[in-house]
Design a protein that fits this description.
The structure is a single chain. The chain is built from 19 helices and 4 strands. It has 470 residues and is mostly helical. The protein starts with a strand and ends in a 5-residue tail after the last helix. The strands form 2 sheets. Strands 1-2 form a two-stranded antiparallel ribbon. Strands 3-4 form a two-stranded antiparallel sheet. Helix content is 41%, strand content 4%. α2 (80-90) packs antiparallel against α3 (105-118), α3 runs parallel beside α18 and α8 packs parallel to α11.
């Protein structure tokens, strides 16, 4: 049951001459300045939290909390230098209370380096320090642990590999023991086609994505080791049965769960689409294994108004990190619908999909720049106005901002049936709608599948392709 909400001004509206339709002279659509016009009559703890979140965000969205700092669209500037200083600090010596985060150190490397790159910083200077730091956490059995003496894990291995690709150079590329990595990946490959995150541990869509990224970036041979659990079950290569396993993770809602049969989650949707886009070109692999209309419906439902940001699950609150996890799904969905731009002929549906946007880019940009920036001396980005900034949100909020500011096109696809992810992608500034942010606040781009810059991906491919064997 739902009903039209009683007209009520958002907090701070009366003092600033803000009408229900738009902010005077600013051109801010009322969609982003007033509470939702339709509310659920059944009040629950979730609906109360949602209402509180809207009331918390509205003063930021309508300019109250950024008085004198906004452009004509009510959007504050992206404080790049303050965010750069925040990230550089995270790569330095951390306080004693961060000891508990020791198993997550590879993630700090990746989050900070990726975010700095998006902000236009040169991170190659970190190469020597990073190599010296990660060498001791690489295990002889293959892969990287979170810290010295810790068991190898696909998540920390993924983060370490991406961090090394970001800084680049022979030292960073060659510190990885690719033969041991291959052997370890074979031990994680399961009889049902999926991957465990750690030997004897959980199997989920994260494993499918992390493993496929590592295999593709490092040029790992696909042939399975005979002692792999998957080889004994009849699989012959690392990608065998993986698409089918990922497809089974799509839920009745249309989203994607960590494993078959549980709740859909935005981060797992991205992992599924990223994995499938490595197995084959997205216009072939995604429709093959996913019900795309249902997935689009679920992803579209994740964007809320007036906030403009994305939630990660049904009936959950917006969170800045889903600017990437859900926002990053759209370029891959767009490519799945439209196919490569080099195609000589397109269907009417593909032509329609090729133009326009599948989500409100300006709504997401407004949420990020208004609500997610920590404009105190601390800097960085956060999930909502009341939260503290951290490296995780800074990285993924900036990644989401990049996706909203740019349009990715699948220019040319690899030959049918080939694996590895070597499609040709192009990014251009998105110009379909009126630009609501200052051009100086545009940031760099990140590959829609690998979440590091495109030229970093290509440099890794070139390096490992030049190797003979391991």
């Amino acid at each position: 049951m739902a009903a039209a909400a009683e007209p009520r001004p958002a907090r701070g509206m009366a003092n600033h001459g803000i009408a229900q339709v738009e902010v005077d002279g600013s051109g801010i659509p009322s969609l982003f300045t007033v509470p939702p016009s339709i509310v659920d009559l059944l009040e629950t703890s979730s609906s109360v939290l949602q209402r509180d979140t809207v009331e918390e965000c509205l003063p930021f969205l309508n300019g109250d909390e950024h008085a004198g700092k906004c452009n004509q669209h009510g959007i504050p500037r992206l404080d790049k230098q303050r965010h750069v200083k925040f990230l550089q600090k995270q790569l330095g010596k951390l306080p004693p209370q961060m000891t508990a985060a020791d198993p997550s150190r590879p993630w700090f490397f990746y989050w900070c380096l990726a975010a700095l790159t998006l902000l236009g910083e040169d991170v190659t200077a970190y190469s020597k320090r990073l190599v010296e730091t990660v060498r001791p956490i690489q295990n002889e059995s293959g892969g990287f642990g979170g810290g010295f003496g810790q068991q190898s894990h696909l998540a920390t291995t993924y983060a370490t590999v991406l961090a090394l690709m970001l800084v680049g150079g022979e030292g960073a590329y060659d510190v990885i023991d690719r033969r041991a990595m291959w052997k370890w990946l074979c031990s994680l490959k399961q009889a049902d086609g999926g991957f465990q995150m750690v030997v004897g541990g959980e199997e989920d869509v994260r494993g499918a994505y992390c493993a496929s990224v590592i295999i593709s970036l490092l040029g790992i041979p696909l042939e399975l080791s005979p002692d792999s659990p998957a080889f004994v079950a009849g699989h012959k290569d690392l990608f065998s049965g993986l698409g089918e396993w990922v497809g089974r993770c799509q839920t009745y809602e249309g989203g994607v769960a960590a494993i078959p049969g549980i709740e859909a989650h935005g981060a797992y949707a991205f992992c599924a689409l990223g994995c499938l886009s490595i197995l084959d070109s997205p216009h072939r692999s995604i429709p093959k294994y996913m019900n795309v209309p249902q997935l689009i419906a679920w992803l579209s439902s994740r964007q809320y108004s007036p906030e403009g940001g994305f939630s990660g699950r049904t009936n959950k609150l917006v969170d800045g990190c889903y600017s990437h996890w859900v926002g990053g799904c759209w370029p891959l969905i767009q490519a799945a619908l439209s196919g490569p731009s080099s195609s000589e002929a397109r269907s009417a549906d593909q032509q329609d999909a090729y133009s326009g946007s599948l989500f409100s880019r300006n709504g997401l940009i407004r949420y990020i720049l208004c609500c997610c920036q920590d404009q105190t001396l601390r800097g960085g980005l956060r999930d909502k106005p009341s939260k503290y900034s951290d490296a995780y949100h800074t990285c993924y909020v900036l990644s989401g901002l990049s996706s909203a500011q740019h349009s990715w096109t699948l220019r040319a696809s690899r030959p049918s049936g080939s694996t590895g992810g070597a499609d040709e992608w192009d990014a251009m500034p998105y110009v379909e709608d009126e630009q609501i942010f200052n051009e100086d606040d545009r940031i760099g781009t990140t590959h829609p599948v690998y979440v590091i810059p495109k030229h970093k991906v290509e440099a890794a491919w070139e390096h490992y392709a030049s190797k003979t064997g391991f």
